[in-house]
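Journal club side-thread
Mid-discussion, someone asked how the predicted structure for our own chain would compare to the paper's figures. Pasting it here so we can look after the session.
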Amino acid sequence: MPKFVGEIRDPVHGYILMTAVERDIIDTKTVQRLRRLKQLSGAYFTYPGAEHSRFLHSVGVMCVASRIASRFEELGYITEDEGQKVRIAGLLHDVGHGPFSHMYEEVLDKYRHMTHEDVGEWLIREGELKDILASNGYSVEEISKLSVGKLEAAEKAFLNQIVASQFDADIMDYLVRDSHFAGAEYGNIDIQRLINSLDVVEGRLAMDVTALYALEAFVIARYEMFKAVYFHRTVRAAEVMIVRAMDYANEFLGLAS
């Protein structure tokens, strides 16, 4: 059991506990800047409640990743130290996002041929995050790769899948979180039932067949959230204009420099 030194009250997951290294990471300017980034870009034009930040989502991903890691620790698949690495990776999974989240990524790709994951790896390998990780005995390169699901660990490929896959802590958090703040019920899934049914088969994540109904609900919820919220016609129209505005402003503001 990791030693927790603090907690964050979250409207979705309740109290989220954090360890000393997680607290130090959260306190950095690199992570705190996520408070000023909207999780759902222009969705608030249609869903006024969808004003939540990337910061809150990142803390939520850490929470869900922690629950999955705890299950695998109980099953003997990973050590407590590996569980802590998974928690950190979940916390830093979206640290590379820019203004208006995925909308900025379209501009970034146009001028730099980069994704938010590329930026995230760079931010972890350089500056204050690098110093905190190194001073706590963690491999900066390992954490940077794990945070985007690219860690080369053939025997434990499922570690990457916890953080980045078609069924990961990131998706589990954003479905229930975006649903909550948007006021749409489509993403209200039972993530704890899913987590309790996770297993590992041949080094990869697997789901117990007895929880098939929960997995089906997860897939349907994701489809419905994309259709009703993320790709809502008014949301997309607003986001297209945001992207064009950032594109036009790039020459003067150096948004993709």
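Post-session note: The chain has 13 helices and four strands.
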